[in-house]
Amino acid sequence: MAAEITFIEQNAPIDEYGRALYAVSRSVLRALLDSLSNEDLTDLNTPLEEVRMRQLAKVVRLERDKGMKGDGFEWAVHEALMGGEPSVLGPISHALRKASKFVKDAPPSSLLFGYERAKYLGFLDAVVDEAGNDSFLLPEGSGRPFKFGPWVSKAALGAASEPMLNERIKKIWKTDLFLSAEGDPRYFAATVKSNYALLEGGRGLRVGIVPESTHAGNHSGVRYSQKHGLWLVSLADPNGFMGMFADAYHAMGRAMCTLGKQPPPVYYVKPTAKAQRVQEQLEKYPDAKVMDIEDALNEAAQQDLVAQRHQLIGVNAPDWLHIKQMAPKVICPNRLNACLGASINEYLTMFRGQKVFKRGNDMLEYRLLLLIETAFNGVIPDERTVSSLFQTTLTESRSLIRAVISKYQYQLRSYVARTLSASLTAASRQTNGQDYTVVINSQNVVDELNKSLADIDGSLSPVGKKKGSVSTYEISPSSYNRLCSKFGVHPNP
Fold first, then answer.
1. CA distance 366 to 355
2. Residue 115 maps to a domain
3. Percent of the chain having pLDDT more than 70?
4. Looking at 233, 263, 287, which one is the last position of a domain?
């Protein structure tokens, strides 16, 4: 994150409400980023990671009727759960225990879904991987539960998936969030609406999350709605989470109007003084990258308080949100030349009869080997890179890389060692005694590190994912030092 972008002022400490405003503003900003299409990025002629606040403000949907408020509310509820916001944790935890008496007595967790996001590279794989191999869906009624991965993959097709879905889960394609308790394999499909009048139930949906409203019976709290067939969570408004969301939503919306030189919609209300301060801070950075502003808001949401009652947890954006590609993708000449070398070598081996492939996978594996030796300069690529080249899912790319490492292990030995050494060199820690942390975007690299640890000493702690992160891993000091010794890497302090 750019050092000059910060919303923390040492001489102006904030209270609980102010810090929570930063967290909800971060969620609304991520919803706006989520709304950008490849067409938008092409019009801006800018890759996603380079999009500036002023550019976003020029193309973003600001009208609530076009989905901005609903998308922002969905992200805000999800990240409030992941960040530990008590005004959301409490009622949703109560609803899950009402939905099933067997659910664990643990804080609720959330997986962001929405079938319209399934087109993003890595989104579906990330959802299934995060849920775990043993997880299952728990619809209403008696009968066996449904294994999470296969059914959610079908639901990602949207309304077209209904003929493929079991009758008990016919409408799970409408799911916005999959809710569970930490460590519990049971998942409940939830629909999230910022307008109670738009709430719809359906077979497979178990929980509805809406703001409190003047509709009959829709007071804040948890109740079962016979009309919708859902356990309904109504978040308090205006003196609860929904009031705070509306405040942050209008602050972000007004900031976007200012930066994009657009007139604010007539129904935009004036934010509170604290939210106006957030708006003014956002308007100070028209040329800042959106991702840097996102990081700054995440940082501000965790700052110390005047009187602290609880600590919010930082919520990292999911990988799929930050990897949308600008279309059309331009390949630079150097990269094209590197790929050309690999393709010539492949044709030469075929013409000479040195390689005879009986399976399509054999050809793909050999092609990836040649790319590793040429285009990737001897570095094992991550799953996203392979997916972009081979047009495969992340799971398929992970299997392809694993197969290549295994089949050509002697040819790739030095390349694997070089890749692992790079990860060890990038690892760091804040203070002595803490675990080292490193961002690793390839599960195969993590697996190879753990294989090396097993070869060194089976009693060493494995490399494991940091709780609450997408691709940050922790390495214990003893494991880190032994790995550095094995690969000849000078350990970081």
1. 9
2. yes
3. 86
4. 233
Residue 11 corresponds to which amino acid?
A: N
Please enumerate in sequence order all residues whose Cβ is within 8 A of that of 363, keeping only pairs 6 or more positions apart, or say none.
357
Tokens at residue 465, please? 């994912």
Please tell me what DSSP assigns to residue 436.
E
Query: What distance in Å separates the CA atoms of residue 77 and residue 213, rounded to the nearest whole number?
Result: 17
Q: How many domains does the chain have?
A: 3
Which segments within 52-145 are labelled E, that is strand? 108-112, 136-137
C-alpha distances (whole Å) from 148 to each of 79, 188, 281, 468 are 22, 10, 42, 20
Q: What is d(CA 177, CA 188) in angstroms, rounded to the nearest whole number?
A: 8
Residue 403 and residue 344 share a domain: yes
Spatial separation of the C-alpha atoms in residues 161 and 156, rounded to whole Å: 8
Count other Cβ atoms within 10 Å, centred on residue 388.
15
Task: Give the chain's radius of gyration (CA, Å).
Answer: 24
Q: Where do we find the tokens 């728990």?
A: 138
User: Dihedral angle at the C-alpha atoms of 402, 408, 411, 414, nearest 10 degrees?
Assistant: 20
3-state percent helix, strand, coil for the chain, nearest multiple of 5: 50, 10, 40
| Residue whose C-alpha is closest to residue 131's, from 85, 170, 77, 188 | 188
Q: What's the length of the chain?
A: 493
Which residues, at least 6 apart from 142, have a Cβ–Cβ distance to it below 8 Å?
none
The DSSP element (H or E) to which 126 belongs, if any, is helix 123-131
Distance in angstroms (rounded) separating the CA atoms of residues 423 and 159 = 42
Q: Are residues 126 and 222 in the same domain?
A: yes
Tokens of 414: 């030095």
Give pLDDT tens digits for 76-132: 999 888 888 888 999 999 999 999 888 888 889 898 888 777 666 566 777 777 777
State the residue range of the domain holding 155: 100-233
Do residues 368 and 404 touch, judged by C-beta distance below 8 A?
Answer: yes
Instruction: Give the containing element (helix H, strand E) for 176.
Output: none
Residue 239 inside a domain? The answer is no
* Per-residue b or e along 201-229, where b marks 16 or more CB atoms closer than 10 Å to that residue's CB: bbbbbbbbbbbbbeeeebebebeebeebb
121 & 220 share domain: yes
pLDDT in tens, 242-254: 888 999 999 999 9
In what helix (H) or strand (E) does residue 17 lie, and over which residues does it extend? helix 16-35
Compute the average pLDDT of residues 52-79: 82
Considering the domain boundaries, does residue 190 fall inside one? yes
Spatial CA neighbour of 51 closest among 300, 366, 322, 275: 322
Integer Cα distance of 491 and 477 in angstroms: 10
